[in-house]
Design brief:
Pfam families: RapH_N (PF18801), TPR_8 (PF13181). This protein has 18 helices and no strands. It has about 375 residues and is an all-alpha fold.
């Protein structure tokens, strides 16, 4: 059997990647199987093999995003193979390697490491000719900077990405990324304490999610709107949207169920509505255990100590120590502030001061995040 020219296989890998970016799981899987067969009979080409191995890893990331598993994503054998070969990659493959590695680190909550790899990829971005591919890269950067509370930087990158996706009116497939961009923009406005500016973006994201009948995105949008109304002090509307999250999210086992159970637990317990608070606390605890989510187990345990037990200071401090990481600091800030209010309302002023100190500590750690990665 005659060998297949490597450029032919590379073109097919490019098509595979297009389907991955559009979350076309069925089409991506079909091309994946075709490429696997072609690689076995392809003419010798190290760069094409490296490209294939990188795309295998990217395919796994896409699959895990569309159909989240209860087990955390393990580092792909294909990426290990690429790292272990020690062969010089072309500039474009170096871009993809660092870009995909950054996505992997972000998925695992290693935001600083993600930024390191994204910034390395950015140095090779001039090798990427396709405008939509650059838009994808800019979106990913905006996403990780948003999580690191680098609000101005995030807003800059998400603006670059959104303008490109919004221009793709002829292709509804890119509306998913348009919705993602609107969500990040809204999150940045919230961090700017401009929730009234965030709300129209979130409403637009919900409208577009409904237009493409994307249930997970509908649920995510409902949750985000609920959080925005909560921040605006409109608790009745917040609760209405949170309850919609449960109605829409339970049939698809949405990850937002865990988030909304936590939010409802916190809201009702802080309002001394203990029957409702305990009900959502138990549902949240069950959900966190089922998903093996250590972060939310820690958060819920802190709520239990604070509102359902004696709010012993040493126990609260021990619980807050479990949030000593990049993902945990924003929650540490919020819960330490909640604890400070609780102690203040109950006349426990010394303990309240300790909690305010924790709030400032958490804020400092968040702000220092941008000094911890290389340029």
């Amino acid at each position: 059997m005659a060998s297949i020219p490597s450029p032919v296989v590379a073109i097919k890998i490019n098509e595979w990647y297009k389907h991955i970016k559009r979350f076309n799981v069925k089409e991506a899987q079909m091309l994946r199987e075709e490429v696997r067969k072609d690689i076995d009979v392809m003419e010798e080409d190290e760069q094409a093999v490296l490209y294939f191995q990188l795309m295998e890893f990217r395919h796994q990331l896409m699959t895990d995003y569309v159909q989240p598993s209860k087990e955390p994503l393990e580092k792909s054998d294909y990426l290990k193979a690429v790292e272990g070969q020690g062969k010089k990659m072309s500039a474009i493959l170096e871009y993809y390697f660092n870009f995909f590695q950054g996505m992997y680190e972000f998925k695992n909550g290693e935001f600083i490491r993600a930024i390191v790899f994204y910034k390395r990829a950015e140095k090779r971005l001039e090798q990427v000719g396709e405008e939509l591919e650059r838009a994808e890269f800019y979106y990913k950067l905006s996403e990780v900077f948003y999580h690191m509370k680098q609000t101005h930087v995030s807003m800059y990158y998400v603006g670059l990405s959104y303008d490109t996706y919004k221009a793709q009116k002829s292709n509804s497939l890119y509306m998913i990324r348009e919705i993602n961009c609107l969500t990040v923009m809204a999150g940045n406005f919230i961090d700017f304490e401009c929730r009234e500016k965030a709300l129209p973006h979130l409403m637009s994201a919900l409208e577009k999610s409904k237009a493409i009948s994307n249930k997970p995105m509908i649920v995510k949008s409902l949750f985000n709107i609920g959080c925005c109304y909560k921040g605006l002090g409109d608790f009745n509307r917040a609760l209405a949207y949170f309850n919609q999250v449960i109605l829409e999210g339970e049939p698809i086992n949405a990850i937002e169920l865990l988030l909304v159970y936590y939010e409802l637990s916190l809201f009702h317990l802080s309002q001394k509505e203990f029957i409702e608070g305990e009900r959502f606390f138990k549902r949240g605890l069950e959900e966190a255990k089922n998903r093996k989510n250590d972060l939310f187990l820690s958060l819920l345990m802190l709520l239990e100590i604070l509102f359902l037990k004696t709010a012993n200071l040493s126990e609260v401090l021990n619980s807050l120590e479990k949030l000593e990481n990049e993902r945990g600091y924003p929650y540490m800030e919020d819960l330490a502030l909640e604890a400070a209010r609780y102690y203040n309302e109950n006349g426990r002023m010394d303990e309240s001061v300790k909690m305010y100190e924790k709030v400032m500590y958490a804020r400092k750690q968040i702000q220092r995040g941008d000094c911890s990665y290389e340029c």
